[in-house]
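User: Hello, can you help with two protein structures?

Assistant: Certainly.
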Amino acid sequence: MTKVFITGISGFIGSNLAINLVKEGYSIDGLIRQISSRELASLEPVLDKIHLIKGDITSYHSVNSAIGSSLPQCVLHLGALTPVRLSFEDPKYLVLNSTKKRKLLEWKPTLTSKEGLKSVVWKERNLKDV
């Protein structure tokens, strides 16, 4: 069974992707920050079938540790600060999300050296997507 690690698993895209991947037979681990159970409502259909790992996407050690404990074949980076509306009102969200993407690019050689990890894929919303 292929294991997929998803950042942003509690978001709209991440939760829907996780649900569909579970239906397709994938094993799913997800990185989540400290969140309330209300924020996990979108994952309710598959909460008993996925493994959630608490961590901080802005911390190399947190991401490295989470991926090291998961040992996935693929990492899908969907994590971003939300809601989208706030990113238009306060430019710090765009800056923070861009910084996280840059950090993951810098960390990619180390992260992909993990045994069995074949790919790291990321998709973040930006102004061109709206």
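That covers the first. Now for the second protein you mentioned:
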Amino acid sequence: MDTDEVRDARSELVASWRSDDGDGIGYLRVRASFDGFAGDGGAWFDGMQVLEFAGLLMRYPLEAGEPASLSGGLGAGEDFVEAVGLSVAPVGALGQLGCRVHLRADLADGRRPAVTHEVRLVLLTTYQRLGTFARDLSDLIEGSAEYAVLGGEVLA
């Protein structure tokens, strides 16, 4: 098996959505891995915000200076702490896309000092995979899918 095939098979972003009370607010959980780096995190979002992000991902071509972005976390203004950040833009001139992923979790269980787990990575992918992810992400928020997957792919 080729090394790039192994990397592509393990390189992905998986999103899931949990919303219980019908107010349109839900918890978006994101797991991402690429080239040996991985993270898992989540944040509360208005479902409409996630649907708007999915719509931005359908644009072709994406503009390098105007990435499609989604950010959620705790606090506001200067006190805002991002827990989930996704930003997609072109990388290079071959049609390669990069999904910048930021995942952060502050953990405190009362038995040990509080710790912060954090990962930042860029998942390389393609327009085809991004389009599939965008449709699946919309289905996820609308309740007709269990998860949405953005597969990694490195163009040669």
